[in-house]
Each structure stands twice: as C-alpha cells, then as structure tokens.
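Why should sequence recovery work at all? Because a backbone constrains its sequence more than one might expect. Tight turns favour small or flexible residues, buried strands favour hydrophobic ones, and helices have their own preferences. The token representation captures these environments compactly. In the example below, the structure is given first.
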C-alpha cells in the first residue's frame, strides 16, 4: 500500500520552465551578528519574520522573471500557467495569499523550500548542517493571465508581527510602452 499521492495535474510545476533555484537571481543576505564559537551551536527559538518579497513570477509565455525589489513585473505574462514565488526571511505560521482580491486556497502553495545563507546570499536548497533562515513559498495561480498577487504571513514567535508583500503582474504592453490592465483589477483590494 502506497501513501504517496500523485500531485494533481493543476498543481504540477511548470514543465516549460527550469526549476526555480537561488542561482536564477541571487538575493543578498542581511547577516546580523551571527557568531560561531567552536563547533558547538547554541539552540535558539526560530527568528521572527524580518523581511519578504516576491522573488519571481513565472508564466508559460514569459518563463521565470526575477522580481526582487519590483512592485510590477516587466514581462508580459500569460499562457496556461502562472506562478509566483515569495521569499520570506524568518518563520511564519499563517500563510495567506490573494489573487485579484480573491483569497487563494492553501493548496495553491505547491512548494515551500527551506532557505539558508551561503556566503553573502540566501540560497536553496540548503545543504546538511546549514541553518534554515526562511522559506521560498511557491504559488500556483493558473487560470489568471495577470493581476494583483498579495501574500501575508505572521511570525511564529515574538513579536508576532504580520508582514505582507504584493506585485502587479502585467497583462499587455503596447508598442509605445503603455500598460493595459483588465477592467476588473480596479474593483478589488486585498
């Protein structure tokens, strides 16, 4: 008897895109007073959420686009598949995501990969012995061609802060650089 379940077709990773790794667009790490005294490691509580951003947006028409520090995508996304990847530093327990104002079911988060620090960058996957400092959470928003993706999470421990991030995913850019949004976008707020 097998307990493994096949991933529903609508949740499979975009097959036309490469796997999203930290090598796609390195994210510089903020190193805060991490000190190792010999080979012994002190045990401490998980760090609270300290930062987050939409690391990348991927689509059938555009592939993965690095979106670190951006509030709007630069690529004309579209096609059958649309995915978002949020990089959060710290530990949270209440992942909530919206697309165009609609709450996404928790099942749309199809991957949560531990993130570590290697050199001066956040990296994943982590290797044995590394300390997990955050997570890369990937969402399946298939069925949308564009719109406003918003994500929020609350720290697992003190100060129990809630952080959020959002990105506008472009639909179409005409030949003079004007952006057109579907009419329904302006009706929703997260």
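From this structural description, the recovered sequence reads:
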């Amino acid at each position: 008897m097998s307990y493994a379940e096949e991933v529903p077709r609508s949740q499979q990773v975009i097959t036309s895109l490469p796997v999203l790794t930290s090598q796609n667009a390195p994210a510089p790490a903020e190193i805060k007073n991490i000190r190792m005294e010999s080979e012994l490691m002190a045990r401490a509580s998980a760090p609270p959420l300290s930062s987050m951003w939409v690391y990348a947006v991927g689509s059938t028409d555009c592939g993965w686009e690095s979106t670190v520090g951006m509030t709007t995508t630069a690529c004309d996304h579209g096609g059958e598949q649309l995915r978002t990847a949020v990089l959060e530093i710290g530990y949270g327990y209440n992942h909530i995501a919206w697309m165009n104002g609609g709450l996404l079911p928790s099942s749309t988060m199809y991957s949560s990969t531990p993130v570590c620090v290697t050199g001066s960058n956040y990296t994943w996957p982590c290797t044995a012995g590394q300390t997990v400092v955050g997570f890369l959470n990937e969402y399946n928003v298939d069925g949308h061609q564009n719109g406003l993706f918003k994500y929020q999470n609350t720290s697992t421990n003190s100060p129990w802060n809630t952080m959020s991030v959002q990105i506008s995913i472009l639909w179409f850019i005409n030949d003079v650089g004007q952006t057109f949004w579907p009419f329904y976008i302006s009706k929703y707020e997260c």
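A few observations help interpret the result. Residues 1-16, 31-40, 178-190 have pLDDT under 50 and may be disordered.
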